[in-house]
Automatic annotation (TrEMBL):
<protein>
    <submittedName>
        <fullName>dTDP-4-amino-4,6-dideoxy-D-glucose transaminase</fullName>
        <ecNumber>2.6.1.33</ecNumber>
    </submittedName>
</protein>
<comment type="similarity">
    <text>Belongs to the DegT/DnrJ/EryC1 family.</text>
</comment>
<dbReference type="InterPro" id="IPR015422">
    <property type="entry name" value="PyrdxlP-dep_Trfase_small"/>
</dbReference>
<dbReference type="InterPro" id="IPR015421">
    <property type="entry name" value="PyrdxlP-dep_Trfase_major"/>
</dbReference>
<dbReference type="GO" id="GO:0019179">
    <property type="term" value="F:dTDP-4-amino-4,6-dideoxy-D-glucose transaminase activity"/>
</dbReference>
<dbReference type="InterPro" id="IPR015424">
    <property type="entry name" value="PyrdxlP-dep_Trfase"/>
</dbReference>
<keyword id="KW-0663">Pyridoxal phosphate</keyword>
<dbReference type="GO" id="GO:0030170">
    <property type="term" value="F:pyridoxal phosphate binding"/>
</dbReference>
<keyword id="KW-0808">Transferase</keyword>
<keyword id="KW-0032">Aminotransferase</keyword>
<dbReference type="InterPro" id="IPR000653">
    <property type="entry name" value="DegT/StrS_aminotransferase"/>
</dbReference>
<dbReference type="GO" id="GO:0000271">
    <property type="term" value="P:polysaccharide biosynthetic process"/>
</dbReference>
<dbReference type="Pfam" id="PF01041">
    <property type="entry name" value="DegT_DnrJ_EryC1"/>
</dbReference>
Amino acid sequence: MKNNIKNKKKILGMVANFCHSRKEVFIPGKSEIPYAGRVYDEKELINLVDASLDFWLTAGRYAKKFEQKLAGFLGVRYCLLTNSGSSANLLAVSALTSPLLKDRRLKPGDEVITTACGFPTTVNPIIQNNLVPVFIDVNLGTYNILTNRIEKAISKKTKAIFIAHTLGNPVCLDDVVSIARKHNLWLIEDNCDSLGSKYKGKYTGTFGDISTCSFYPAHHITTGEGGALLTDNPLLKRIIMSFRDWGRDCWCEPGCDNTCGKRFSWKVGKLPFGYDHKYIYSHIGYNLKITDMQAAIGVAQIKKLPSFIKARRKNFRYLYHYFEKYRNFFILPEWLKDAEPSWFGFPLLVKEDASFTRSEIVNHLEKHKIATRMLFGGNLIKQPAYENIQYRVYGSLKNTDFVMNNLFWLGVYPGITDEKLRYIFKITDNFFINHKTL
């Protein structure tokens, strides 16, 4: 036993030395500036190797700790880890179809209000559960749902609202929460791009019945792949866990038995009395759990989250001040006075009367190794995957189409140093000089 402890310390020390020996060197014009990426040090690698040495290949001690840390950070009662933010969205919508919710359960044909301007896996779970998305346009500047249209879009079939805080920019939650409560609608927050954002001093991801996070490398913290669901509702927590863990009725953690104290004393459905509770299934579920090695990375990452948020805000602020001189050509990002965004990216919307196109400036930046991104799927109903889905649109999607054709965004993640920002500014200035737009 003593030798094992000694050997582990030696291994982890070697891991730290290995990490310290790796240093990034930025060479302007030759090194790429990605829109996002992993920011880590020896602590993540040490945790990862420590978890691997346990060889506990499913969720374990690190997963439990990560769930506690994330729930504590946001001030939510329950956190359930899953294998991606997209899976988190799927579980969130699927949970609301549970018979355990009785009259409030979502049934095929029910409507969910959302936007077509965003990432596919906010909308996909609605379709995958045989529900009908109702699309509302977005505001130019914030790129969030037009909240003044939500109540007008509600029909007798409307049962839920599913909104994302676009690029970390909080939606007007006063409006959304008020409407959801007034009409007894479920509210799901897709908080995948917004971890650490606040609205009126309260973290986004704490306003809805369920919220979701993503830990993909592009996001605020990473576990490689990974995601989470958060809720204050004990029944929803139980349902989400069931859908995540094969649909089983049992709520034992991996490797544990008889948490309920009556494992062989249940009588459920048409099963015989005493059938093993670990093999009783109350939902048609999935297996979407995370591994402990992924969670181990998350435990180290979440300690860095406050500094990551600070760095993102700083980079956003520098980009905003720089692009102010070009505001004749761009609609610059906007945010609500009550919002404190933890920015995922810096959006730039090329104006209709600009003397250049989005393609021209994007190609210029990409040619010089500065990564750009569109606002995800643009107008999703114009994507080939959605040609034959059932949906409803309230009003027009004029702004969504404009965003699809004219918006791009730059990264603000903590790996973008002041040196990289200066290079971005230089290359952008060159674009305007060469196009004689000033």
